[in-house]
């Protein structure tokens, strides 16, 4: 059986698209901080970035779960999107429990 990489359903495509948005914005933000040294993680732009991107990843996780359960989506990118969403949820939980800002 040949694995599907591209999602076939609308929910699967939304899940992959939202997590792609999440990964691109986080990558660009980290490049601006680490490589170019233009910004700092202590600035308010990071709060706005996190406020926009983390909910997008959580929504991608929920739409991915719904696509798998309801629409029987079996693409690799949707499962990867679900794993990224789980990672974001665990990050938020452990960050709030163990890190004092």
The string of secondary-structure elements, in order, is HHH
- Fraction of residues in β-strands: under 5%
Rounded to the nearest angstrom, the radius of gyration is 15 Å
* Chain-averaged pLDDT: 90
Distance between the termini: 49 Å
Q: Find the count of extended strands (DSSP E, 2+ residues).
A: 0
Please render the helix and strand layout as text:
Layout (H helix, E strand, L loop, with lengths): L9 H26 L8 H27 L5 H23 L3
Helix pairs in contact: 1-2, 1-3, 2-3
Structure explained in plain terms:
With 101 residues, the protein is an all-alpha fold. It is 75% helix and 0% strand. The chain is elongated, with a radius of gyration of 15 Å.
């Amino acid at each position: 059986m040949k694995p599907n990489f591209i999602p076939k359903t609308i929910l699967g495509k939304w899940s992959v698209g939202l997590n792609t948005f999440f990964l691109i914005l986080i990558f660009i933000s980290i490049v601006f901080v680490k490589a170019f040294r233009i910004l700092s993680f202590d600035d308010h732009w990071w709060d706005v970035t996190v406020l926009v991107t983390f909910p997008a990843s959580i929504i991608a996780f929920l739409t991915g779960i719904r696509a798998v359960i309801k629409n029987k989506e079996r693409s690799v990118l949707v499962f990867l999107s679900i794993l990224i969403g789980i990672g974001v949820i665990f990050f938020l939980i452990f960050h709030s429990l163990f890190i004092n800002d």
